[in-house]
Amino acid sequence: MFSFLRTAGFLAMLCVTLATATISMGIWAISLTAQVTTMTAGAAAAAIAHRKAIAAAIVRTKAKARLRRALVVLPIAGIAAAVAFERQDYLEWKQENPDGDVEDYGCEVSAVSAEVIDEVLQDLPGQVRPSRDWLLSRMPDCESGMPGPEAADTLALDTKDWQSRP
Length: 166
Known about the structure:
mainly alpha, 5 helices, disordered C terminus
């Protein structure tokens, strides 16, 4: 009889321990599920906010470009606006590249412009669209240090004139 009570007591304690472990594991699983749900909702909200911020930045950039194009069309104000816009772009670039100079800026702008020239030319009407090769020939050749193919002769002449002066 003692053996029976000892076995029954052991089985009862085993059942209570297993039930407690099952309940605690269930509560832990529910807690983790709630955390995952909260994190997923937060990530989705952040992604939506990020998409909206990117869309707003794109719209803002397009609007600025549109205004720049409209101002540049005006003869006198257009020249002043183009100079002011280019100066502002240079100053922003200079903040990001404090060791750079005007030549470095020109080379970087030329390289980026050469990459997007086809897209820009496609947007222009055929009657006013310049030749791609003509535009590229007027961009500076930064690898050789020369401003461009046509300007190389002029630069050489200017350098000779400068060196021959007393």
